[in-house]
Specification:
heterodimer; A: 165 residues; alpha+beta; Ubiquitin-like (UB roll); 5 helices; 5 strands; B: alpha+beta; Aldehyde Oxidoreductase, domain 4; 7-stranded mixed beta sheet; 5-stranded mixed beta sheet
Amino acid sequence: MTTLKVNGHDHEIDADPDTPLLYVLRDELKLNAAKFGCGLGQCGACTVIVDGKAVLSCVTPLLLLKGKAVTTLEGLGTIEKPAPIQRAFTEEQAAQCGYCIAGMMMRAQALLQRNPKPTDDQIRGELQINLCRCGTHMRILRAVHRAAHLMDTAELTTNNQGGAQ
Amino acid sequence: MNGPANLDRRQVLSGGGALIVSFSLSEAFAEEGAAAVPKPPGSLATSPYLDSWIRIDADGGITVFTGKAELGQGFKTAFQQIAAEELDVPFASLKVITADTSLTADEGYTSGSQSTQYSGTAIQNAAAQVRELLVAEAARRLDLPAESLRTQDGAVIAQDGRRLGYGELVVGDMLHVQAQPKSKLKSPSTYKVVGQSIPRVDIPAKVTGGAAYVQDMRLPGMVHARIVRPPSYGAQLTECDTSAVEKLPGFVKVVRDGNFLAVVARKEFQAIKAMKALSAAAKWKEKPTLPKQDDLLRVLTSLKSNDTTIFRASDPSAVGQKTVEATYTRPYQAHGSIGPSCAIAQLNDGAMTVWTHTQGVYPDRQGIAEMLKVPLENVRLIHVEGSGCYGHNGADDVAADAAVIARALPGIPVRVQWMREQEHAWEPFGPAMVTRLKASLDGDGRIADWNFDVWTNTHSMRPGGAGSMLAAQHKAEPFAVPAPKPIPLPAGGGDRNAIPIYKFPNAKVVHHFIPAMPVRVSAMRALGAYHNVFSIESFMTELAELAGEDSVEFRLKHLEDKRGREVIEKAAKEFGWQKGQKAPADRGYGFAFARYKSLAAYCAIASEVEVNRETGRARLVRAVAAVDSGQVVNPDGLINQVEGAIIQSTSWTLYEAVTFDDTRITSTDWQTYPILRFDAVPDKVDVHIINRPGLPFLGSGETGQGPAAASVANAVANATGKRLRDLPLTRKKIKDAIDA
């Protein structure tokens, strides 16, 4: 048994220590957002946040996660109460098939947490790891800019709404 | 549909008594393929009952059914808009059910940008006819003339304020009537829902971690399977000691049938470990069957082909003076879905249910039933969204895989997930193509003579029969791969868009259809149109240069089609295209145009590309598109599709080629099959819609693929002064051309 903190809650995980985080999230915790794309760390569909950093969950084994806090897209907000990044992607209609989108959002979220006002080049540089096949890139970029703006605005009223920890 | 009451309703629909006769005639003529009696529009022609499309419950709940599959194009939202509009109900009050062999009409495949054209048109007309039936029923009950009634928010309302809800009005099988050829459609000027950029209904779940894909389904007691595919086409499994695999934690079963090999485990990562162990235990005998990857021009033009002249025009008065020739090639290219294919199957009391992201639940059911040797009615396929597919990827194969494994584990739901390497190596690729063009200009710089030859395989090996599916091909008693067939014109397959839209006095177009398929191929977004339009539109710019003319003006000079001209003019204007304008240093401008399939949406794209002369790297800086797809249902949805087409096609055009040695596919992941990443994303992509209120919906999902390719290639040529004709236009090819 390994104790894993996901979206603010501790979970006792009964899986081999070499099990990649992706399968712990999907198979053990029944979370949908992190996606299997390649299992090779090449596409970013599985991106989640671990202790504030964007991590490829398909190549991160459970044994490396002791005492760390994992955040998935589910931990940011819900349909009823979306986080700024979720609102931004919805408002920009930044998805076609949407399979890559959860990973894009988590990497963008990690960026915005450490750099609330990134330039366009910084966003592109950060998202370089993540692949989109539908060609939704222009909307994804717009959505990240919008999320930065929404977070900026939100901070004036509430404290750290939709924060990842 | 048997009682006299229904006859009345049919009469209501047509407004006359001669209707029954026209029905029987219509069916009789349809058998003979005569067009004397008009059929109802869109897919109503093949699934004519109104309640195949729209059902209304007693409580007023309305369900819309489509036999098409949502693949991320967003049509589910568009169909909901269409139905809400014609039924006069609020958008949010409807739900849409997509492809399911137990629930929806058989609409074949979701392909060829035909969903809105066929299914959307069917829903539009069915909704309008349902509304008329409801009004007629209300008129009868209220004893008022139908003309005095109106509909609003799911009710029929009389002038005196009396109101009958749709749920109250629908009794029995009242909607189980055949559609009429003509519907009383709303005037587009009154549209409230159609034409609006209503947010997509599927996006909220996708941005919050909801269960949005077949990959996200978890059925009670579900187990996980992985396939061990042969290492190459035609490899034979000679030996497989499963004893070590059987000792692994969570092991459930090895399923082997000839060269079909799979393993099942309780948990997903256990299944992956078991797959690796099984793969190590499996010994295969391979043989070299693949052609030379770097010599596709010779390979394709030397294979035996069936040649058909598909177009000819002749005017001896037009005589060419300057003649040019050019040959263009396209490699095999991959769909490259971000999520590898996945399916879930369960056998219960002899009935097989498969949840699948196939594009064709009905044809796939036929293939699976044939493979399992069970009656069709014992197999049900339910479409659940997957990762975007852009054509025939591994979806159908994994559905068959799941069915084979589930049959070995009765009662237990089996989830099969392909690995990245399997998707890359085993998906049926977009076929390689060669085109050879030759044209002459007359003394006025007009094209007097045009010759176009295209060599390629079929562009659809989609199931119907079992033999199209890997699991059936790999069984000990294998199903033979069906003989490939060309897709008939006017849509065409490898010859899609091979016939030019421009008017040339003399022209000849020949389709060289190659039956032999050394590499597994099938339908990929736009089929042959991608390369044919790339070739035609590259060549048009080459000819414009030869004639010393601006390439936009040169196109307009040869084009009569009014809507096509407007699309070209719009893209040029919005781009700021100016005759003779030179791009800044190391940049180039390109232009291209096509009407997809010569019968669907029009699309013109102007682009600006920058080329790094040191590295040869090309990047699309900005693209401006104009598109005419008839009546627009959801403008933002259409823009999203065209934006996506431009970026995806740019990726195909600049980077992508399937690689192989003499035995194995060697492009098996994103390292060996690189696609466009964020550092290559344009600064700006603008899509301008020319809306055509009231005109038929024209398919748009694939209309951008060809024009984007040629526009980018023309801009690369403009930037470098070197014309590249072999796709993809890689960094190395551009650098070599610059240095040459």
